[in-house]
């Protein structure tokens, strides 16, 4: 396991991490977000991308990032919010994106975990989100649950796709093949660290390190060995240590490479 003190104080250069996907506007952080961010900074995680995943979250995500140095935001319509989508909401989102440019469109995609009830609407919204990312010249961050083959169908049916990040990646071989062929990125978080995630770990070994970013999805997806029920961005160090073990490289190399990747992908990330 990782020695956090050593991580922070080791010279030369303290590892610096980016949590590329977290929900810091979640109500579970209402009482103590400044403390959560302070502990995160101490652990070397000094930048965060908060996810404004639906119309009633956009304004809050923009405001929260303005109040906390190092925090960026993405804006989008999560598949669970697909029913709220219409041309007015589309115009609203476009307006927000012009006034307060996000680092990415997200999280967007397809989610059939609770059944395939509104497939057409989800696909329509997903395509509209990919179009918006292209229009604004930013990546799209994909949320995918019980929907891998249809996600692939949608991507393959398009003439263009923006740069993509598969958030909390747990794809199978066919999706990994597409990612390798198309240079997309994957977000690695708590899911990968679980002892049952053999298949995912096998796929992750096939993906070059320059296509991987780290994420916690806080307050969700607590990584293995993290002693709290609420996930927080400081647990990025655990995910990095896990990935270092899986790839047999130093944690400092994971930090440097994943930070470079995040800066390359999310051009509007605030400076370290
Ligand atoms: Zn998320």
Bound molecules: zinc ion
Major sheet, described briefly?
A: 5 strands, parallel
Helix share bin: 40-55%
Give, in order, the helices and strands. Answer: HEHEHEHEHEHEHEHHEHH
Shape: globular
Please give the domain count. Answer: 1
CATH topology grouping: TIM Barrel
CATH class: Alpha Beta
Would you report the number of β strands?
Answer: 8
Rg over C-alpha atoms, rounded to the nearest angstrom:
18 Å
Strand order, biggest sheet? 4-5-6-7-8
By CATH, the architecture is named Alpha-Beta Barrel
Number of helices: 11
CATH superfamily: Metal-dependent hydrolases
**Alpha carbon gap, first and last residue:** 26 Å
- Poorly predicted residue ranges: 1-11
> Which structural category fits the helices and strands?
alpha/beta
Mean pLDDT across the residues is 94
């Amino acid at each position: 396991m990782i020695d956090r003190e050593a991580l922070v104080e080791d010279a030369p250069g303290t590892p610096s991490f980016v949590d590329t996907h977290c929900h810091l506007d979640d109500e579970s952080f209402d009482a103590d977000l400044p403390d959560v961010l302070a502990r995160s900074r101490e652990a070397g995680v000094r930048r965060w991308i908060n996810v404004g995943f639906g119309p009633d979250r956009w304004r809050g995500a923009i405001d929260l990032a303005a109040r906390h140095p190092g925090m960026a935001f993405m804006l989008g319509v999560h598949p669970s919010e697909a029913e709220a989508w219409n041309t007015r909401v589309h115009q609203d989102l476009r307006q927000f994106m012009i006034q307060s440019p996000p680092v990415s469109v997200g999280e967007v995609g397809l989610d059939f975990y609770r059944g395939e009830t509104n497939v057409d609407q989800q696909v329509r919204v997903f395509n509209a989100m990919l179009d918006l990312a292209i229009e604004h010249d930013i990546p799209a961050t994909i949320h995918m649950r019980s929907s891998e083959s249809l996600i692939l169908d949608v991507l393959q049916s398009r003439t263009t796709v923006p740069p993509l990040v598969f958030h909390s990646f747990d794809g199978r071989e066919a999706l990994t093949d597409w990612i390798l062929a198309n240079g997309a990125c994957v977000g690695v978080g708590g899911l990968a660290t679980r002892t049952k995630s053999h298949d995912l770990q096998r796929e992750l070994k096939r993906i070059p390190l320059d296509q991987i970013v780290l994420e916690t999805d806080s307050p969700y997806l607590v990584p293995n060995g993290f002693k709290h029920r609420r996930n927080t961005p400081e647990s990025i160090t655990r995910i990095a240590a896990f990935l270092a073990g899986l790839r047999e490289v130093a944690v400092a190399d994971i930090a440097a490479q994943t930070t470079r990747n995040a800066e390359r992908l999310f051009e509007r990330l605030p400076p370290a």
